[in-house]
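queue> holo job accepted (adenosine monophosphate)
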Amino acid sequence: MTLSIPFDNSYARLPDRFHARLDPKPVAAPRLVRLNTALAEQLGIDPEALANPEGLAMLAGNAAPPGAEPLAQAYAGHQFGHFVPQLGDGRACLLGEVIGRDGIRRDIQLKGSGTTPFSRAGDGRAALGPVLREYLVSEAMAALGVPTTRTLAAVTTGEPVWRETRLPGAVLTRIASSHIRVGTFQYFAARGDTEAVRLLADHAIARHYPDAAGADNPYSAFLDAVIAAQAELVARWLLIGFIHGVMNTDNCAISGETIDYGPCAFMDEYDPATVFSSIDHGGRYAYGNQPRIAQWNLARLAETLLPLLGADEDSSMAAAREALSAFAPRFETAYRTGLRRKIGLTTEREGDDALTEDFLALLAADRVDFTLAFRGLSDPASARTLFADGAAFDAWAGRWRSRLAAQPGGADAAYGVMQAANPAFIPRNHLVEAALSAATEQSDFAPFEALLDVLSRPYQGDPAMAAYARGPREEERVLQTFCGT
Ligand code: AMP
Ligand code: MG
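queue> job finished
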């Protein structure tokens, strides 16, 4: 079986200032840890060929396959609110694009594939732990139904990387509908290169928002579409308790996919102020701050598009302001609709928002596990045991039951809706940490495999898998997560 990848590269056709061409840097002794065969098939790539030596050579960065045009992308970004005019792929390499069986164009990118002209002081490499973390969480997000980049493969390199200690090195193959970020627009805008901003916007419109091309002002329609996609995305995050952890503008994808799984984490007990990232001292990227930050990032995107939005400064500013004003209502609608589904409501009535908000207030007051509480509502007697204040839960549940009775199909109709909206299994921090430490410290990949398997069916409850559903015991609690770069 020879490896044949139907590359169809479009980013490489953009002018030279968009990227730096370079080959990935070979590694000593590549070994395949995990291949995502279903994703390979979706991309139209033969998984058997990917698993053979030629495929492994590609996934490790040892040999670029025919048709690849490897490059590192240029981008800038606001990191924790501070603008850095040049970041770029410092340890990633875009091999090229393929059009999948579903007709969607996607990037194939290696992460951890060696230094590039954008590496600055970094080594261009990735450690096994963060690679497996991205594999687990990105694939869990996909199974949860959240737009996300995917993971095609993880390989170990046979070479160490040095962080605080010596760690096994690895390369991840990331699949994304593109790697264009808010920071990519910022890179050109910061250089006053309006022509490049226009070319990039045209490219992004063609790839992600083709309908915008026919609008009176395509750039304005493009901005509207990105704002809508991000508002929907952040609502999805909140509804499953996801905390991205590094919502810098370079980690904000124009496509509306979740990208860059660094210190991300899932919240156990409900508390909007929850932060796990070791570098997020101010709580800028706390769970409940994410909508506000997404809007801030989108304002940075709007700024880069100003020269394209109107005939003069005033009309451009007015257009940007109007576009940005759509974020909050769009987010609120998506979030509130999602919350209603989480408590099984199939219709919308006055008082529903108070009902969902009061439930969240109960969770916050008793520090109840967010995922267990919502999933538990399908079996209210068991949900009640999660609350220290049983009477308060009963009072709320009484109101909830009468509300359910007032909808077509009554409480029965609610059950299926709740099962589809409330995952039983999420990549809980303590499970992820346990899987990563077994792999990196004992070369035992069984916990990683088992967890990946459970996370591929997050909405199917399974009593045999109860150990994966429960929250952390006191001694298992993860207090901090690290980007590991
Ligand atoms: P991230 O924190 O992964 O969003 O990365 C922020 C910036 O740092 C990007 O420009 C990365 O390419 C770069 N970077 C992260 N880790 C490394 C590394 N090990 N070597 C070189 N550059 C890196
Ligand atoms: Mg990044």
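queue> The mean pLDDT is 97.
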